[in-house]
Amino acid sequence: MRKTKVPKQGQKFICRRTFKHFKENDFIAEVSNIDWSEVTQEQDPNKAVVVFNNLITKVIDKHAPMRKQAVRNVSAPWLDKDLKQYMKHRDKVRTEAIKTNNLAKWNEYRKLRNFVTKLNKNKKRLYYHKKINEVKSDSTKVWSTLNELMGKKTRFAPTFLEGDGIYLTKPREIANYLSQSFTNKIKKFRNDMEVRPEENISYQLIRKYIMQTKNCTFKFAEVTEDDVKKLLKESKEKPSGTDNIEVRLLKMVVDLILLPVSHIINLSLRKHIFPSPWKMAKLIPLIKNNKEPLSGQNSRPISLLPALSKIMEKVAYDQIQDYFTAHGLNTIYQHAYKMGHSTTTALTQITDHWLQEIDNKKIVGTIFLDLSAAFDLLDHAILLNKLKCYGFQLPALKWLESYLSNREYKVYFNGNYSDVGYMDCGVPQGSCLGPLLFSIFTNDLPLVLKHATMAIYADDTTLFASAQTDCQLNNILNEELALVTQWIRANKLVVNVEKTKCMVVGSKHLLKTTQMLYLTSGNTRIEQVDLAKLLGVIVDSRLSWTSQINYVLQKMGRSMGIIKYCRKCIPRWLTKQLVQSLVLSYLDYASVVWSNTSENNLHKLQVAQNKAARIVLGCPYRTNVRTMHDSLAWLTVKCRLKYFLITFIRNIIMTKIPKVIHNKLSFFSDNHSYGTRQTSVTRCALPCCKTNQMQRTVCYRAMVAWNALPGFLLSENSKRCFQKKLKVFLFTQE
């Protein structure tokens, strides 16, 4: 039998700018001498960007040139000359002890070994203490140092690829293979689609249910230099795109480049042309499963766009978002990309609806829809037609068509680029405008439903309905699923039926007598489950949240193990910050939704929090829990959960968003035309409950906690002051 040998991995390379001899003042001085008249006099947005890039890149290359560097495994940086000498001496004595088997030599070796181990630990601790103290004012550098300490340094893709039984080792060949793989995936979905009717059902829904009573139109407005300056300063310092112009360098000279950048942005809006150089994306493949070799299936692309293209996008994003918000065009069921909305509000809408229906002695059925490559499959023509229905005028439509069309990308692998690839559908990955356009694209989806409700977060779509019997529920869900599937097909998206799941939610008694659902999409039956991961939270059919608590405990335990390992090398203030970021964040995420779990589960979380406190303080097991919490200014788990519940309801009361949740709240002032003592502050009127299921809803529990607050807290207008006073108040309640 012939043996196939896996090729040896070659050297890994990265191309980046070197700042070894960079002097900020010299760089700023040279940029200040650039004559931008060639840019500001140009009336073609494409040429204007090319000229700008050439002028600024020439200066950047001089002060921070690009270098192709080999990636090496960095040895322990705290190993100095003295420590290495001790290590050599230790190893020499060990060799002699092995040869002679002399007891005195073995004792000498053990003493040296213990001494070197202790010295190594001390030098490592002092090295990281010093390094962290030097960068403690810069949180990004602090986390970079911590990742280095915890062994979480950036992973690079392997230097070979395994695909279709062929091993590729040349970086450019691998880059081209991955580029073709990404393209073929989308082409396959598009080719499998059926021919659609010209008139999309979405256009009718938008005209009839959203725009019928509206009289509004949209067009882009030009921006000022102050607007551009604000956007540049707020830009995140992410890796550069194919133009190799870094955000941090632009921020250094922000006042000097405002004139040409503002000219390009306004010229783009006037000419309805999105500059072509800003359409090129740099795709970096990341391996999905580290236990499997790199292949087309086992990789996902991270997209990097030119820094200034994101400024242009943010200008468009803000104006489009303001238009939809001002005229009330957004569906209340989409929880992504909107102020005051989050995964927590989406989960609240879903679980509160379930519990409310269970309180009415009904069975709830849920379908967790999975859309395949939804952002990459978005059809440009359909999107533009929808925007036209929403009142977008021709100039705005032309600019958006220019933004979406003729986009290109190159896969970057181990210092090499692939050939240029082309996108004829989808929104650009890594963009800020793309997700907003996708949410507009799906804005009319909830309107197709007749007897069910929907909650959407980006492309995560959850469909749910209720009925008195399992037979009725089965019929309703099948009918509603057929309507949703029809909408998805008409809009040229694809449902991944294998990953789509359904679940029946109800009380213990109802679930015992409920039969399995029989839901189908096409000719495929949808799998029914008792557990499902929804927006990062594990949901079970009885809403006991036990699986979610176990998941949280597992995550907290893993993070605490890592921090315990690092604790001796970092100061206590940073240990506390680490625990709050990497441990307690799991406890806090969507806690308002699952905080109605059992006392036993809450006790488990309290034990985990106590363990985290001991790690921060370095105190023994028998240390008094209250003493630890007072020292760290931590609330107990129950009070911590109540804190987030109260701040959650206050945000909704004060902002009146999300509407889908605010509409469920009722206040005493709404129910009486006459004055009462309780109308001096905003207190909530509790709904009637048939069972304790209604009392488990987020809204009910939050209203009870809100009503129990003293008047001085309810009347506090400042959000920050309210949070401080609430924390002090809850401390006194423990």
From TrEMBL:
Pfam family, one: RVT_1
InterPro entries: DNA/RNA_pol_sf, RT_dom
Domain Reverse transcriptase: 267-539
Superkingdom, taxonomy of origin: Eukaryota
PANTHER family: REVERSE TRANSCRIPTASE DOMAIN-CONTAINING PROTEIN (PTHR33332)
Name the record gives this protein: Reverse transcriptase domain-containing protein
Native species: Neogobius melanostomus (round goby)
Lineage: Eukaryota, Metazoa, Chordata, Craniata, Vertebrata
